[in-house]
Structure formats: structure tokens, C-alpha cells
Write a structure and sequence with these properties.
The protein is 77% helix and 0% strand. By secondary structure, it is an all-alpha fold. α2 runs antiparallel to α3 and α8 packs across α9.
Length: 226
């Protein structure tokens, strides 16, 4: 793998961390460190842009890979189109809060009494998204085998994503924070911290995935030239 390609990956991950720190500092000045990660704020916008970039990158990989496929619908390269579609959906989900809407719809249609446990249903939905992604990658693992350098990025990305989901569940309401601190004022501070760390981990996971897929795109483009 070329050194400049690895440096590009470091720049993307580093930029996501720097932006996250900047958003935290801006929020701190406003009295809420999670402020810039709220709906419609810069943190959410950056997340959507990262997800769209991943989708576009994987679609470009698919375009290059399908040139060698007699029937791309049955060719393993189809996985890149599936990944591109999945991240496009995640971008829409992040922008429109689709999974949160699903959570509310389930509560409304089932007339379920909302509890601290059932209120974490949207966290479970995100977990299901991740499991679907892992399943798709496993089914099409033969297509990913030539790109062994992608494995560390996938493992790191999913690990950080899992941490993000756990933090999201912990910051869903004040229950967990109150259990830890036994103080309402401290619980609010801990809740804001957990909520902010969840958003930072989400951006970091997206940056890691984008870095890995960009390396695949670069490798695929070089193969296409030869």
C-alpha cells in the first residue's frame, strides 16, 4: 500500500477528531458540550456528509469492478452496490431521524407504554443495521479477500460503532447517569458527556470506514488501469 494512501487515511481520521473537538469546545462555550451534535447542527451535517462520501466511494468501486463481470447481478462485486445503498440509507436516516421515527411508530401502533427499556428500541434498530452490514460482508467475503488491508479498518470501524451504540443506549434518558452518580446535577453532566462521546465515536467510525473504502477504490483503480 502506497505511503500517500495511508497518509490520506490518517488525515481523514485526524480531521474527524479535530472537528469533534472543535464542536465540543463550541458547545462548551454555549453551556452544553453536546449542542453542536444536535439535529441540524454541524456535527450532524458532517456525519451525513461522511456517510454520503462512503456511499459514493463504494458506488465508484462497484462501477470499476462490474466491468469484469459478465452478469453483475450474480457477481460478488454486487456487494459494493449493496454497501453503497446501505450507507446512502444511513445518511438519510441520520438526516431525517428515520430509526427514531420507527421507534415512535412502534410505540404508537402497539399502544405500548413507553419505559426506559422500550425507549432504547431505536438503539436496537441501529444495532440491527450493523448486524445486517456484517452479514452482507460475510456473504460476499470472497469479493473482499483481495483487499486484505481493508480488514483492520472494518474491525476498527465496527468496534468504534459498537461503542457508539452502547454510549447511545447509556445516554438515552437520565436513568443510567442517575444510577452511576446518585445526584441529579451530576447526572445531567454525565448524560451530556455520554451523549457527546457517542456522537464523537459515530463520526470516528464513519471516518475509519471511509478511509478503508478509499484505499479499496485506489487499489481497484490501479488494477483497472493494468
Amino acid at each position: 500500500m502506497k505511503l500517500q494512501n495511508k497518509m490520506t487515511s490518517k488525515y481523514i481520521v485526524g480531521a474527524s477528531l479535530i472537528l469533534s473537538l472543535l464542536f465540543v469546545l463550541i458547545g462548551y462555550q454555549k453551556g452544553d458540550i453536546s449542542d453542536q451534535f444536535s439535529e441540524g447542527k454541524p456535527g450532524t451535517i458532517v456525519s451525513v456528509l461522511l456517510l454520503l462520501a462512503i456511499s459514493f466511494t463504494c458506488f465508484r468501486i462497484f462501477i470499476l469492478r462490474r466491468r469484469t463481470a459478465a452478469n453483475w447481478l450474480r457477481h460478488p462485486s454486487l456487494v459494493w452496490l449493496l454497501i453503497a445503498s446501505g450507507f446512502l440509507f444511513l445518511a438519510l436516516d441520520d438526516a431525517l431521524k428515520i430509526h427514531e421515527g420507527i421507534d415512535k411508530s412502534i410505540h404508537a401502533m402497539s399502544e405500548m407504554t413507553e419505559t426506559s427499556l422500550s425507549d432504547r428500541m431505536d438503539d436496537a434498530i441501529i444495532g440491527i443495521y450493523a448486524l445486517i452490514g456484517v452479514f452482507v460482508l460475510y456473504v460476499y467475503r470472497s469479493e473482499l479477500t483481495p483487499y486484505r488491508f481493508l480488514a483492520p479498518y472494518l474491525l476498527a470501524g465496527f468496534a468504534v460503532l459498537a461503542l457508539s451504540i452502547a454510549l447511545d443506549a447509556a445516554s438515552n434518558g437520565l436513568g443510567f447517569a442517575l444510577w452511576v452518580t446518585n445526584s441529579e446535577s451530576a447526572a445531567h453532566s454525565l448524560h451530556a458527556l455520554l451523549d457527546t462521546l457517542e456522537e464523537v465515536c459515530k463520526l470516528l467510525a464513519e471516518a475509519i470506514f471511509l478511509s478503508g473504502f478509499l484505499l479499496v477504490l485506489q487499489a481497484t483503480a490501479e488494477q483497472d488501469k493494468t
